[in-house]
Design goal:
It comes from Puccinia graminis f. sp. tritici (strain CRL 75-36-700-3 / race SCCL) (Black stem rust fungus). The chain is of the alpha/beta class. The protein folds into 2 domains: about 90 residues, no CATH class; about 250 residues, no CATH class. Strands 3-2-1-4-5 form a 5-stranded mixed beta sheet, sandwiched between helices. α3 crosses α4 and α3 packs across α6. It is elongated and about 140 Å long.
Length: about 425
């Protein structure tokens, strides 16, 4: 017996129910769609030296020098910075390495920020900065920061005239003072030697500048023993790689911030040569002297102020002496305002940090010589940068008895008496 026929309406309902069930199962299944494969293409590198639309002032803000100075510096370093064009990838051009190095020194920017600005890798920015620093030290250090030879009488006379033109004190061949460069160090007992009296880590430099505000001599004491013992492997790696220990003038090693300026002077080649009692060869002409503040000893060829200002003539002399000596503090200010990395605690080992400071001083002299524009806006400092200002000098007046014959005591009295007439 055949089954009864199915109602067409019921058959349609069963088919619709079956289709709805299949649709729900399809929605529950995970469907993987493979995206089109595309290779990563880094954006084009920023090349402002080839962009004539960039205003001159903006270019100076970025790189601390004009286009003409930038081109000159690139040409000077081209032989040292030129990379093999057949290497893998796209090596940075000489101009790009100079731009990255100048941006790092001028702004104290991190390598992550520099990589975004120039559209390069962070490691590439780090290497480019290191190559730039080493190239400047290799090519320009000897011809930029140095005293003239003792037989170069014309150059010494020019230096003396610049200082005498300021306030009338004769026979000055340089203003001497110390400055501290901040350094970021890990919290460890081995690094306590770098903590200065303001409780932040630094490297100390003793500098001599002329009447134009150019560095003539830079000196810092040797590397701290704790750093050599605790990071001997890192230091060896730095010495065997691009981070060489360069010398500028009579510089050797790195100076820990805890060392007092007077001790730096006593142990420096310049301080030893200025001490007549040691019988060393003088580095400045006979009859000339440096000018410094009260922290320097008065038994060497350094003209310091009177420790006692009871007499009115002593007060007047100290005022003239301070007004003449202030050129070295102004030079430190312009140096750090132009190269803001010197106002930033560098996360680098002392060898690299001191090399960076030397390069800033070299570029400072070169830009002054070429007459590069100094923007007044650089004089403004943030609250964080003000923390790393100059350390105040302790009033440590040397009371050593004067030696017989012509000494700095009698020379100072003779200069003081000039203003009484």
């Amino acid at each position: 017996m055949l089954p009864p026929p199915i109602d067409p309406t019921t058959l349609n309902q069963i088919a619709a129910l079956w289709m709805w069930n299949r649709h729900q199962q399809a929605l529950d299944q995970q469907i993987y769609v493979r995206a089109d494969r595309t290779a990563f293409v880094r954006p084009e590198r920023w090349e402002p030296w080839n962009d004539d639309r960039l205003p001159l002032v903006r270019f100076i803000e970025y790189f601390r020098m004009s286009r003409a100075d930038f081109a000159w510096l690139s040409d000077e370093l081209r032989e040292t910075l030129q990379q093999d064009p057949l290497r893998r990838g796209a090596p940075l051009s000489v101009e790009a390495q100079v731009a990255v190095g100048l941006y790092r020194l001028g702004h104290g920017a991190t390598y992550v920020m520099i990589s975004h600005v120039f559209n390069i890798g962070k490691e590439t920015a780090d290497k480019a900065t290191g190559h730039f620093v080493q190239a400047v030290l290799k090519v320009l250090r000897l011809q930029t920061i140095s005293f003239p030879g003792l037989d170069a009488h014309d150059k010494w006379d020019e230096i003396i005239e610049l200082f005498e033109w300021r306030h009338g004190i004769p026979d000055i061949v340089g203003a001497i003072d110390g400055t501290h460069i901040p350094l970021a160090i890990p919290p460890s007992d081995e690094w306590k030697g770098y903590i200065n009296r303001k409780n932040w880590a630094s490297l100390v430099f003793q500098c001599v500048v002329n009447g134009d505000g150019n560095f003539r001599d830079v000196c810092d004491p040797p590397l701290h023993n704790s750093y050599i013992q605790s990071t001997s492997s890192q230091l060896l790696h730095a010495l065997m790689s691009d981070e060489r220990v360069w010398t500028v003038g009579q510089v050797f090693g790195g100076g820990a911030g805890s060392i007092h300026d007077t001790r730096v002077f006593r142990r420096s080649d310049l301080g030893i040569s200025l001490n007549n009692a040691l019988g060393r060869e003088m580095r400045i002409p006979p009859g000339t002297h440096l000018i410094g503040d009260a922290g320097y000893p008065s038994d060497v060829n350094v003209l310091v102020p009177y420790p006692s200002v009871v007499a009115p003539e002593n007060v007047h002399f100290n005022h003239i002496q301070s007004a003449t000596r202030i050129i070295v503090e102004q030079t430190f200010g312009r140096l750090k305002n132009r190269f803001r990395i010197l106002l930033t605690a560098q996360k680098a080992n002392p060898v690299r940090a001191r090399n960076t400071a030397f390069v800033c001083m070299i570029l400072h002299n070169l830009l002054n010589k070429r007459g590069t524009l100094y923007l007044q806006g650089w004089d403004e400092r943030s609250r964080h940068e003000l923390r790393f200002g100059e350390l105040p000098r302790l009033n440590e007046h040397d009371q050593t008895p004067p030696p017989p014959g012509e000494s700095m005591w009698t020379r100072r009295d003779r200069i003081r008496d000039m203003y009484r007439r």
